[in-house]
Amino acid sequence: AEARLLEPVGPRLRFRHELLRLAAMRSTAPTTSAAAHRAWADRLGTSANAEDLVSAADHEEALGPSLESLRARIRAAEAVWARGANPEARRQWHQALTVGHTLPPGVAESELDLILGALGCVGFGWNDVRDYIMPVANRQFSEVRSWHLRLLRYAGSVWGDGIESDELTPDELRRARAC
After folding, report:
1. DSSP letter for each residue of 24-90
2. Does residue 111 or residue 109 have the better pLDDT?
3. How far apart are CA 64 and CA 34, in angstroms?
4. CB 133 within 8 A of CB 104
5. How much is the pTM?
């Protein structure tokens, strides 16, 4: 702080410029960086403040994909949603979905159900499913593709018979429609 590299933002400090943050990150040993991310994730993750929980989730994700990083993102999404910030809540739930894509199939079944329910509540519609999920599903191997089909089944149960895609095989389309 004495070198004026950091500036106060409420009760926190942040780098005065993104390039300073990047320089600090790149010059830090990976083990030191991981320890710092772990410490910040642990410290911020116990807060009741939505912004702290979002930061904690960011630190968890910086450590790599894990069930804990998914759970941290869900806690952040719930806190933002409870505060009534719907556009940010939508972004946080979508980020949770993105984190879920990085985990092996079957690892986060209950978390996936929670994410699916929340997506519909924050206005995540069929067009979003088509635009965000289908392109990813078509690039994945069969186990991950089945995870995406589960999302499509959810979409079919919420939005009716609107599931149609030239990108799915007839068998996948039939499974996606079966709720």
Report:
1. HHHTS-HHHHHHHHHHHHHHHTT-S-HHHHHHHHHHHHHT-S-HHHHHHHHHHHHHHHHHT-HHHHH
2. 111
3. 10
4. no
5. 0.70
